[in-house]
Protein: oxaloacetate tautomerase
Organism: Mya arenaria
Amino acid sequence: MASKVSQFMQLGRKIVAVGRNYKAHAHELGNALPSKPMLFLKPTSSYIAEGEKIRIPEGCTSLHHEVELGIVIGKPGSRISEQDAASHIGGYILALDMTARDFQEEAKKKGHPWSLAKGFDTSCPVSGFIDKDKISDPSKVRLWLKVNDSLKQDGNTGDMIFSIPHLISYISRYFRLEEGDVILTGTPEGVGPVGSGDVIEAGLSDVVTMKFQVEQS
Amino acid sequence: MASKVSQFMQLGRKIVAVGRNYKAHAHELGNALPSKPMLFLKPTSSYIAEGEKIRIPEGCTSLHHEVELGIVIGKPGSRISEQDAASHIGGYILALDMTARDFQEEAKKKGHPWSLAKGFDTSCPVSGFIDKDKISDPSKVRLWLKVNDSLKQDGNTGDMIFSIPHLISYISRYFRLEEGDVILTGTPEGVGPVGSGDVIEAGLSDVVTMKFQVEQS
Ligand SMILES: [Mg+2]
Ligand SMILES: [Mg+2]
Ligand SMILES: [Mg+2]
């Protein structure tokens, strides 16, 4: 029987994303390693499912792919302990944290918010809901991404700087987590640009694959 | 009869906020005037209503008040024209964009996202829903805020840099607006710190007033 939380796209009200949670990815963009999780928000209006297209936002000349493991919150909570974190996980998704890298670089330089760079419509392509019992250990799953059949990202959640229990605990000290909310746990190295007509394919271990086409908006 | 949109706190899925939309406020924090609206997100989990308390987030030593006019979206849309913008307004709220100024200053300096500084739990105290016909011209309303009976902010929406129709149009080019979503339109000058035990009172013209107490979390 499908649980309510499997309808996270309709049910959830926020997406909390973590930046620079893989060492090699922080380095490839010339960033320092974070001393605490770096959090940003994407709105739920940015979700798309397979069959819908990723649209390059107006004015963006450098749209990047980032493949990520998403945690779907199954039980609400604030100030969740690391010990209790697993009990708040309702399931998983595979997600792309599509990023207007030029908007983000400008924001970083000026000290402006990242919201436009990270939250534009279609910036959060997702797989279907993955039952919790399909992934026995979320700290050891392979994440990969191809652009037009060429492998660009191939990482493992074992390389996260901050673990999933730590992320859930840290985030919930500031943001109350609600049923259907999603946490995007960061991307491994290999991010890069995509353009109109490109096809992105991504996969999570042997559990799920998904495909999205990019087009000009 | 109460409309569905009056339940924006439960119905809405995002809060899009505008930074530096009043000239004197941009200057008081030493910021340049924006050439386009500066957007950031607050999660709906940050809403509180009268009777609930504003809680200083863990580690914050400079919590600031910002009083703002909020637009509640009544009709969904993307790429809304300025001419059509008014028809997408479902009503209004008076809101506080509570800001962990120390977190924000650190984020600005490092080029990090603003989400924690702006989106922590209780960072969006709001009035009840205000029917659209209660405010005949949203571009000419007084906004004021007192801390412990001392007047700190006293502005008028007539001093906005980017008008409400322009904001709705610009935002909807990037973020699809949905029923119950809220736009916070920026704060006039006079922002400043509050501490545990302080009482904030705010008002919108002769339409509504509201009161919130601050406490350590
Ligand atoms: Mg941000
Ligand atoms: Mg990412
Ligand atoms: Mg503000």
